[in-house]
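Field notebook, page 722. I keep forgetting to write these up properly, so this time I am using the form the group agreed on. The chain and the ligand, flavin-adenine dinucleotide, are recorded exactly as supplied. Prediction of the bound pose follows.
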Amino acid sequence: MPEFKRISSETEMAQNGAGPGRLMCNGTQSPSKMNYRSANGEGSPGPTSAEFRPIPRRFSPPSFDRQSSQTESERNGSSSRQELESLSASSSRANSPVWYNTRKYVPVIDRILKRQAAGTPFFSLEFFPPRTDSGASDLMAIFDRLARGRPLFCDMTWHPKGDPSNTDKPTSSTSMAGNMLNYAGIETMLHMTCVGLTTEQMKDNLYKAKNLGIRSILALRGDLPDGAEEWQKTDGGLDYAVDLVKLIKEEFGDYFVICVAGYPDGHPECKTYWEDIQHLKDKVEAGADLIITQLFFKNETFFKYVSDCRKVGITVPILPGVLPIQGYKSLSNMAKLSKLEVPKEILDAIEPIKTNDVAIRQYGIFKAVEICRELLNSGMVPGIHFYTLNREKAVTQVLKELGLWSEKIQRPLPWKQTANHNRVEEEVRPIFWRCRPNSYVLRTSEWNEFPNGRWGDSRAASFNDLQTYHLFYLKSRSPKTELLKMWGETLTSEEDVWKVFVNYLTGAQNEQGVKVTRMPWDDDEIEPETSLICEKLASINSRGVLTINSQPRVNAAPSTDLKVGWGSPGGYIFQKAYLEFFTSKENIAALKEILPRYPQVNYHIINHSGEADYTNCDEYQPIAVTWGVFPGKEIIQPTVVDPEAFKTWKDEAFALWLEAWAHIYPKNSESSRVIQNIHDGYYLVNLVDNDFPKESVLWDILEEMLTLKASTEETEISAASS
Ligand SMILES: Cc1cc2nc3c(=O)[nH]c(=O)nc-3n(C[C@H](O)[C@H](O)[C@H](O)COP(=O)(O)OP(=O)(O)OC[C@H]3O[C@@H](n4cnc5c(N)ncnc54)[C@H](O)[C@@H]3O)c2cc1C
Ligand SMILES: NC(=O)c1ccc[n+]([C@@H]2O[C@H](COP(=O)([O-])OP(=O)(O)OC[C@H]3O[C@@H](n4cnc5c(N)ncnc54)[C@H](O)[C@@H]3O)[C@@H](O)[C@H]2O)c1
Ligand SMILES: C[S@@+](CC[C@H](N)C(=O)[O-])C[C@H]1O[C@@H](n2cnc3c(N)ncnc32)[C@H](O)[C@@H]1O
């Protein structure tokens, strides 16, 4: 890894807002964004080949960019606000201001310590990687649902047999951890073991995790490989988990939060309980920040373990690993894997109900709640770690009964955020991907800066190509059979397609008695704010104005409003009316005649090839369409219409007709031809009504367009017949 220089000159310190002798990046941490920049031309060391992330074309930051004066440690959240305030007061500072952002990445261990100090318990959830792509898709849906309860973090186990480091394999441990972090927006910890790996391979695996944005590792030795009688390290590999902890520290400094495993019943291979505790202490002294325990069946075992750990000087948080019993088989499997004996009292209780899954689950929930209550009341645990076995129901119920499930209604921003620390300051996105946040995250994953404050000029922004519409986290969560029922087993005309749009918006059942809950452009049901304009939307869709995105105008709604609210309470939300739709060439001809009469409206009209491209927008001038005004804060404008980004989006929006819709029908079938014709012949339009305090004129424009088109057709017909 490169050695990054210590910022030493007064000028550099002032420019960077750093204090005297502040270490910008010590060679064991990630190169700072600043160093990335200089690596691109100003002679300072750049990323090595071990940094897998290619250097992308940088997103051009807005001219008044706060990031440009931030230090790496500020970005990592390791620099406290207090520290910055004292810097501002320092007389040695030059007159350039220190910009600091209120959004900072806070490492998991700091979050845990904060919650511990405040006495507000938390929970974390463990999952194992799925075997199949469809299993991965189901698991992602589980992550989305469990994320609502706000786990402090979730972790993904390391499966030596499942090619765990392969980031090209969607179901690997590393890929799934990256998906959980980047797409489900959950702070993620990845397990790693030493089994079958050389030190160099482990380093590579850690870099892969780092490049996905992962900041927490559960460092393990790993179970004995199948058939092995005793542990033998791999040639060129590591012996114990403590060696992996040391490797992480040596190579990455404080970049990763490190967690290790503890065994309240003693590790099965260790000669004595106390020797095992000494080995745990070695792991902590080598740099582990926290401990998660193996499951245990009696709380006394855990309490004794914690007080024994404290006696030998282990002071880091110890999270109890709790397994809600969910079935007879999974319990005996887990007990076998962890080499624990299930107490007779539990076996006696489940024996009579062992074939009744529901009864066993109810018993498991009852037992887990009882155990967790006692743990939480003991004052010895800051939170609880659950072995979910990839199932959500039991754990959700346990969390609800414990009062740990805290579904938050208030959204910090109107769009779904990721948990990637690189994007912690991201505050602005183009409206187009609003219903496809995973695609947006994927397409911008190579950026090393994200716009905050304002979107700026996106000429330099390069979006990753999207050729992988079939990646499980991009494609529909509904299987093809369900999509056929929603979108029509057969389509004979464009009007059949129009009806699908109307049914989606109104929630009405289609002719087969099925509700349309997904569309290619939106894999979720419509959002509450759409109900404000739903009737109007349905009316224009029924006449061939196929909307895929919209927002009503909003003039100072409270930020707590259930339909349009976001951000902290006490603020006000504003929106410009926005419509995005596909429509026919004939409608476009009429629209182009009408639009000049409405100067308060910005428009952009484009066809699939981009050859026809009409707009009255300044090409490089984004339009803020949503903003919030909050007490004691600057205005936040999280959503924009950006003409440059629209050109990128249009490729995706048009491709979805074919990739997501036509594909569900046999090739060359009538249904697929109907979709192909729409793709080839329709235009994509976006309209923004800038006059947000007044009733929106967008509906008038569309009515006029439809009337003009109808009368043109009539004229043409009568001309042809005369
Ligand atoms: C929370 C949790 C998560 C887990 N996740 C996974 C997973 O994702 N994938 C997976 O394969 N396994 C996982 N395991 C299982 C784990 O890999 C096994 O229990 C393994 O046998 C021990 O791993 P460890 O990291 O605790 O090892 P270590 O801490 O290395 O200990 C292993 C044994 O060696 C002894 N020991 C340690 N240091 C020394 C020394 N210097 N000299 C002599 N003896 C020493 C210890 O006392 C212990 O008996 C997990 C376990 C837990 C508790
Ligand atoms: N508390 C603990 O001791 C603890 C916690 C987590 C993991 N582990 C250990 O870690 C190892 C891996 O743990 P885990 O929970 O991920 O798996 P596991 O071996 O406990 O199996 C969990 C599930 O994954 C399935 N599976 C097995 N092999 C697979 C593969 N190659 N690819 C995909 N799925 C597979 C299994 O059928 C099972 O349903 C195990 O050896 C386990 O002992 C231990
Ligand atoms: C444009 S955004 C809303 C933007 C949000 N107000 C913001 O500031 O980020 C997405 C909206 O489009 C709506 N929507 C989804 N599918 C639609 C469709 N087919 N037609 C019209 N609106 C749709 C969603 O319900 C959602 O409210």
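OBSERVATIONS:
- Residues 1-95 have pLDDT under 50 and may be disordered.
- Residues 157-158, 191, 193, 218, 220-223, 240-242, 261, 267, 269-270, 276, 279, 283, 292, 294, 321 surround flavin-adenine dinucleotide (ligand 1) (CB under 6 Å).
FOLLOW-UP: compare against the apo run.
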